[in-house]
Design brief:
By secondary structure, this protein is of the alpha/beta class. Helix content is about 50%, strand content about 10%. Strands 3-2-1-4-5-6-7-8 form an 8-stranded mixed beta sheet, with helices on both faces. Helix 2 packs parallel to helix 3. The termini are far apart. Residues about 30-45 have low confidence and may be disordered. The structure holds nicotinamide-adenine-dinucleotide (NAD).
């Protein structure tokens, strides 16, 4: 009898252990099926990307407003956002006046001012981020956009130096990420670098290329991740040499600019261009290359750093490498 009782106890323990193991396997199978289903839905979603009609722009400073104006003049409507309401208002007036000069229908109706970041995603099929060149800030913006936008909305950064893969950890659906890098002034340099993140889908990449063509710009297709993309990489090498020649007192800024102008036939030299872009932007871009390579030769010279610390930021502050009578508003 005792033996039978023990055997029954033993078998009932085995029964419960087996039942437990089967339930775990079942949960795992159900989860796998669910994940496969979700993946299918997501991939289907990406295969059925919506036609781009509305574009959200985050950051309405020097670049954001130019990008908005250029896109709006091709008939796209814009959701325009900036964390600084004054900047946003100025950007609106800049865009609307320029659209009026171009005789574009309903300039006011083309641009919708947005006061809360989450709302920039409303009805937008593409969002372009153009906030300052600060990786942590961009990561935070993308984290918020990931939450507020539809899963088929393409999210792009206009960063001058950061590959979108630096930002992608903040986004759950990484297939929809792009670098879309504009070159100002856009009407004189109608070309845009397009680069993918580590998981960007072919559909998103191809749609990006077609969209660039739709706004009459040339897509500079970057085939493999590269900091600085196509032209900026070339431009970085030029700038670095010029700044080191100036800081090492080998030649004056006027001489270097003149050499460039005569040789290339361009209207402006590298120092004039850096003043126009803003020396804070130029400096932080150079620092990004330095951080990437770790090569001391890439480190911006102290004289350049000092100018930025002293607020000599170029055209926008009235003094940079050159002095200006009028500040850029
Ligand atoms: N300046 C250039 O020539 C140039 C060229 C190509 C790409 N870029 C890139 O474009 C981006 C913007 O550069 P920019 O020259 O227009 O800078 P900018 O300083 O003129 O404009 C940035 C704008 O972002 C706003 N902003 C700051 N924090 C914000 C936030 N949390 N949310 C929303 N808006 C915020 C600021 O108020 C400002 O108006 C940078 O990543 C830069 O590398 C610049």
């Amino acid at each position: 009898m005792k033996l039978l009782k023990r055997l029954r106890n033993f078998l009932s323990k085995i029964y419960f252990i087996l039942k437990y193991l089967i339930s775990i396997v079942n949960i795992h199978i159900k989860e796998t099926i669910l994940h496969d289903k979700l993946d299918n839905i997501e991939n289907k979603g990406l295969n059925m990307l919506n036609q781009i009609k509305k574009v959200g722009i985050v950051g309405s400073g020097f670049m954001g407003r130019q990008i908005a104006l250029w896109i709006a003049s091709f008939g796209y409507s814009i959701n325009l956002y900036d964390s600084n309401p004054e900047v946003l208002k100025k950007a609106e007036s800049f865009i609307v006046k320029a659209l009026q000069r171009k005789n574009i229908d309903d300039p006011q109706g083309k641009v919708q001012l947005i006061s809360v970041l989450d709302n920039v995603a409303t009805n937008a099929e593409l969002i372009i981020e153009a906030v300052p060149e600060d990786l942590d800030l961009k990561i935070e913006i993308f984290r918020q956009l990931d939450r507020s936008s539809s899963s088929t909305t393409i999210l792009a950064t206009n960063s001058s130096s950061f590959p979108v893969s630096y930002i992608e950890d903040s986004v759950i659906k990484k297939q929809r990420l792009l670098n879309l890098h504009f070159y100002p002034p856009i009407h004189e340099r109608p070309m845009i670098d397009i680069m993918r993140g580590s998981e960007t889908s072919d559909e998103v990449f191809n749609q990006g290329i077609e969209w660039i063509k739709s706004i009459e710009c040339y897509p500079l297709v970057v085939k493999k991740e590269l900091m600085g993309f196509v032209f900026n990489r070339i431009w970085h090498t030029v700038k670095k040499e010029c700044i080191h020649m100036w800081a090492g007192e080998y030649a004056d800024i006027e001489t270097i600019d003149k050499a460039w102008q005569i040789f290339t036939g361009m209207k402006m030299g590298p120092f004039q261009m850096m003043d126009g872009i803003g020396l804070d932007v130029a400096y932080s871009v150079e620092m990004s290359y330095y951080r990437e390579s770790g090569d001391p030769k890439d480190k911006p010279p102290k004289a350049f750093e000092d100018m930025v610390k002293n607020g000599e930021l170029g055209l926008k502050t009235g003094k940079g490498f050159y002095e200006y009578r009028r500040r850029l508003k």
